[in-house]
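Quick review question:
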């Protein structure tokens, strides 16, 4: 393991969620890699989303909570450029071995990653306020 990988693992901390003997590879990757990265990168995801909202010229801040949830879903699922930026923020925190594992089943892991990120943004919708 190189210095970069060692530093990333130390920065991220321990796995989040149970890793049991019968856990599948994707579940292990989710709990050992994705969850700690999403937690570590949370503030940048919030800022990135606020930047996206401000550039989209929408009146996100005036929307009802339900409409804000739909906006978050649409932003991540339908705006490929934004989605790829978010994905890059996660992938940049992978170790070399994690990246190799990710490439084996990237489609399924991308789905997990984006769904977890959407839920993270939705859970913090109260923090998504208009910057002054």
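Suggested answer, residue by residue:
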């Amino acid at each position: 393991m190189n210095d970069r990988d060692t530093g990333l693992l130390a920065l991220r901390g321990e796995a989040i969620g149970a890793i049991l003997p019968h856990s599948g590879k994707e579940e292990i990757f989710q709990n050992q890699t994705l969850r700690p990265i999403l937690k570590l990168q949370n503030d940048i995801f919030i800022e990135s989303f606020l930047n996206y909202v401000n550039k989209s010229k929408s009146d996100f801040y005036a929307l009802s909570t339900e409409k804000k949830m739909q906006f978050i879903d649409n932003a991540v699922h339908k705006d490929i450029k934004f989605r790829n930026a978010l994905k890059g923020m996660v992938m940049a925190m992978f170790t070399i071995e994690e990246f190799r594992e990710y490439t084996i089943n990237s489609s399924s892991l991308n789905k997990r990653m984006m769904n977890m990120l959407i839920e993270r943004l939705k859970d913090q919708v109260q923090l998504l306020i208009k910057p002054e």
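Why it works: The chain has seven helices and no strands. The longest helix spans residues 106-123.
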